[in-house]
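Researcher: Final request for today, and then I'll write up notes for the group meeting. The sequence and the SMILES for zinc ion follow.
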Amino acid sequence: MYSSSWSDLAVCKKCGADLFQKDANIVCVNCGEDHSSLQKWFVVTDGKLLDDPSIIGQISTPSELSIGPVKEFYLPAIQDAGIKLDDLRILEIGSGVGNIAYGFSKVAKPLVYLATDAYVQLLDVLRTNLDQFGLTESVGWVAGLNADLEIALQPKKFNVVIGHSVLHHVLDYKTLIKRLNGLLDTPGVMLFAEPLRDGWAYFLTIVKLILTQSDIFQISETSKTILAYMENNLSQRITRADDREFLSTLEDKHIFALDDLRGLASRKDWDFIRRN
Ligand SMILES: C[S@@+](CC[C@H](N)C(=O)[O-])C[C@H]1O[C@@H](n2cnc3c(N)ncnc32)[C@H](O)[C@@H]1O
Ligand SMILES: [Zn+2]
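Model: Predicted protein-zinc ion complex:
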């Protein structure tokens, strides 16, 4: 049922039609566009990937540490949604170099694992890592996906969407969630793990305290500069949460309140709750 060709997962970026393998090439059945140049790791947005991962310090190296979250958070939530563990078809956005894919490779046997990221430099590393995890051809795929753009993937190929600390980087995260929901099979589930405003607000209070009482805390000038930067960054992301132009200049954009995401999940008009 799951062929080893990526043309089965993707659609034409120009017109949205199916792709097919023609000799060594991958071609659109409708407009004839040739997509073969992208076979190393395919690109499933309109091609505008990002090329300066100043964000790289935030990306976890795959390790045993990701097994816990997969076992204790992702798998139970997936089963809770009515999905059988022998039918896991996972699309991960913002995979970095495969932290969460590693956890899945250790505790489950996904039929499809499409790991994606927006940064060109990460994709080759991601491909190498997936091979090392045993998520090789026909199970583990790597694609370039800038989550702020259109997504050229076949609907209903995936029943699980995962984003591990990614949504807060995506300017139009609501549009993204809506698009991903349109791709999901039934039953299907989307799971996002994000830093929350409530936790950071507590941290911010402590930072403010340290900065205003610096004679008592006696911290170095370097530490003071770092804390002042964090205070400014977090305060601005909270007070300017609706300022798109400002957010677009930041790598870490949104700092979600719990209800921002819970509210979206319960929107009736988006048809989120679909069970077999
Ligand atoms: C905090 S890191 C988390 C990486 C990985 N999920 C992990 O757990 O190690 C955020 C990831 O989101 C990716 N990212 C940032 N902006 C993105 C966008 N617009 N579309 C897709 N991915 C993006 C980054 O390249 C990075 O890999
Ligand atoms: Zn086409």
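Model: DSSP finds nine helices and eight strands in the chain. The domain at 54-194+264-270 is CATH 3.40.50.150 (Rossmann fold).
Researcher: Thanks, that's everything.
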